[in-house]
Amino acid sequence: MNDNAKITSLTDEDFDIQVAAGTVLVDFWASWCMPCRLQGPILDRVAASVKPGGVRIYKLNVDEQPRTPSRFQINSIPTLLLFLDGQVVRRMIGLQDEKSLMAALGA
C-alpha cells in the first residue's frame, strides 16, 4: 500500500499542465452528487494501491471549475477520464467500483 497517496484537486488553470505527461485519472464530480460522494472513498483506496510514481489521480469540481468539463463534454457526473500523456484514452461514466478502476489502470 502507498500510504503517501493523495488525491488532489485540479483547477481550470492547472489542468493541462497536470495531465500533460504520464498516466493520469481525473474524477469530474460535484459535492451535491451522491454517486460522486460514493466514488471518493473508492478512489482513495485505488490511490493507496497504485505504486508510487505510477498513475496520478486528481479530482475536478465541475461547479467550481466549469471550463474544463465543458472542453471534455462532461454531461453527467461522476465521469472519470484516463489520460496518457495528455490524451484521453478512456472515459468512464457513472460510479465505478474499485476492481473496474484497478483494471482500467492496469494495476
Task: Give your account of this protein's structure.
With 107 residues, this protein is an alpha/beta fold. The chain has a domain at 20-93: 3-Layer(aba) Sandwich (Glutaredoxin), CATH 3.40.30.10. Helices cover 31% and strands 26% of the residues. The protein is built from four helices and five strands; from the N terminus they run βαβαβαββα. It has helices spanning 15-19, 34-49, 67-71, 98-104, and strands at 8-9, 23-29, 56-61, 79-84, 87-93. A five-stranded mixed β-sheet has the order 1-3-2-4-5, covered by helices on one side. The longest helix has 16 residues, at 34-49. The radius of gyration is 13 Å and the shape is globular. The model has no long low-confidence stretch (mean pLDDT 93).
Quick tags:
about 110 residues; alpha/beta; Glutaredoxin; 5-stranded mixed beta sheet; globular
Radius of gyration: 13 Å
Identify low-pLDDT runs: none
CATH A-level architecture of the domain at 20-93: 3-Layer(aba) Sandwich
CATH H-level name of the domain at 20-93... which superfamily? Answer: Glutaredoxin
Strand order of the largest sheet: 1-3-2-4-5
* CATH topology heading of the domain at 20-93: Glutaredoxin
The biggest beta sheet reads: 5 strands, mixed
